[in-house]
Amino acid sequence: MGSAAAYYLARRGKRVLGLERFDIPHSMGSSHGETRIIRLAYYEDPSYVMLLHRAYELWRALQSRAGERLLWTTGSVDAGPPDSWVFKGSLRSCLEHDLPHEVLTARDLKERFPGYGLPHETLGVFQPEGGFLLPERCIVSFVQSAHAEGAEIHGRETVLGWEPIGDGVRVTTDHGRYEADRLVVTGGAWNRKLLPFLRDFAIPERQVLAWLQPERPDDFTPERFPVFNLIVDEGRFYGFPVFGIPGFKFGKYHHFEERWDPDDLDREPRWDDEQVLRDFAARHFPTGYGPTMSLQVCLFTNSPDKHFIIDTHPHYPQVSFASACSGHGFKFASVIGEILADLAERGLTRHNIEFFRLDRLFGVRPEERRSRLPVGRLGPAPRRLARMWEHGRPDRAVRRRRGPDRSSGVGRRDGHGWADEEGAFLDDVSTVADEQAEAVRSFW
Fold first, then answer.
1. What is the CATH number of domain 35-132+203-302?
2. 313-328 pLDDT per residue, tens
3. Separation CA 395–CA 169 (nearest Å)
4. Rounded to an integer, what distance in angstroms lies between the CA atom of residue 145 and that of residue 76?
5. Which CATH number fits domain 136-201+318-439: 3.30.1150, 1.20.144, 3.30.450, 3.50.50?
6. Catalytic site positions
7. What pTM, to 2 d.p., does this model score?
8. Helices (H), 301-373
């Protein structure tokens, strides 16, 4: 998400510095592993679908610019017992947003996609636009595109601290010191260290993925095997066709629910990690149950309600962040990058992010915010949040722009899109979220 924010800010003419403590790309966080699911049907809540439409637009624009395919369409299956939240939630999102879909029985799934072998009582929602992204190539494409727009990106540079200076910030790293008008923090599992007020709201969790060699490889190609989200007696699982490296890839959401400090994470897969995954494959994807090809450890960063947290700092509005994507965030990286660019540029966004605001975790309801502010505008944080603030550490910075082109951080809505105070139109504005303000509903 940091690389996406860097690109969209640079594209708007901002002077951008991106700081990454590891390599670019790397396998230390949540954005590696060859493939990541993208899907329009969204059982977590229909409120995500409007952002997903924009995410798809931006991914396709990025791959066009990069000149390589980043998004592969296989269709997606969300399946489980008829009364399960996975099946019912996916179907609800399709009905509410008029998404093309089919409801399939376990027999239907087996006949159409022979690699599936689900319990007979299973019902699934097939949505034809689901598929997967190539996360490492997506990150490289964002970074190279940001470079082409004039951004400066540093790998292997660790942020040591930051401090507010007036309405900007000063960032200190193990290589130097920088001043910026705005700061965007996208530290993933490290966000709770970068922004300590997130300590109780962005919890790192160890996650393990497996790749097994199918006994019938033709059943697990992208053309014959849609990505899946599946809830069964053993838990909730997700999976992919064979692509990139040998093996049918899958994982169990929240695996063993192990909380870890990301700096001390046990990155070596264990016997019990492999066994729980192999047992699942043997029961539900029997022709995919072959020798283990690979095991990888990654990280989820979970919020209490498993929804994203996207907001500005509760005390310093020049700092914005995205955090705790709870194992389902990469597909949104493009549009969240755009949102973060909006927040850094002018403190508000064209997209409706009321659903993801930090203060919901303190009992503030979206309708209370909307009674005070236009949709998308970031208002004053509760005092109790401000009191919790402590100095954090960023991993992204927008360098301070000198001279008359310095951004004011304020925008206004024009009849044809977003314009700055001088009337200059901003790039590639999608108004779909603004037109669907009521699409976001709280349910906690």
1. 3.30.9.10
2. 999 999 999 998 999 9
3. 13
4. 29
5. 3.50.50
6. 32, 35-36, 249, 254, 298, 331
7. 0.84
8. 333-346, 366-370
